[in-house]
Task: structure prediction
Amino acid sequence: MFRYCYRLCARYTAAALIEADVSRADAAATLGFMAGNDHFFLNLSMAACKATLDAAHGVDGSTVVTAMARNGVEFGIRVSGMGARWFTDPAPVIDGLYFPGYGPADANPDLGDSAITETAGIGGFAMGGAPAIVRFVGGTPADAVGYTRAMYGITLTRNSEYTLPALGFAGTPTGIDLRRVVESGVAPVINTGIAHREPGIGQIGAGIARAPLGCFGAALRALAAELGIAGERT
Result:
């Protein structure tokens, strides 16, 4: 998926560089830097997803999850109807593939900002449209489709801007709903890199993580309590 996004990004960037009349050396350096990492587009997509979800935040009574993030110790979610409050659980362990010479004993619990993409309905939620990613994170193409299908059960809608050919061009599952997560017991799936537990070593693999369910239950109980108080006052 990111390779495809990179190609689109590079194509438009190349045209913009030519129109801006930058030097050949600067244009080559820019495009070479982008080509050096197939995940370059992740940086842009995370910012875009964060801006999108911020627009959905602050809706009174809303059970839509507007952020998921993790720091290697805790996993946290933010909910549209709960203001600036975060709900946390211990960061999950990642199930994945390791680079040669590394294994589970070397891994840190899940960390990073990329879960904002799953929150917005892409990333792991769109795996059905990018079955080749299983060679990077583990599993089979059927697993990739299965992950996406499962996410339809915990989301409110399908994004018609992000369609999946393998699923008849259905939109990606979008709008994680606290109620559906808690009722179903199905945790959001996240594509993620595996970081070494020691600082300075960096990525040692990639895989699949599941958001811990406890923070979703805590958020739903807190929102229900807040709405109940508001009802008594009115």
In short: DSSP finds eight helices and nine strands in the chain. The domain at 56-233 is CATH 3.90.1700.10 (v583 fold).
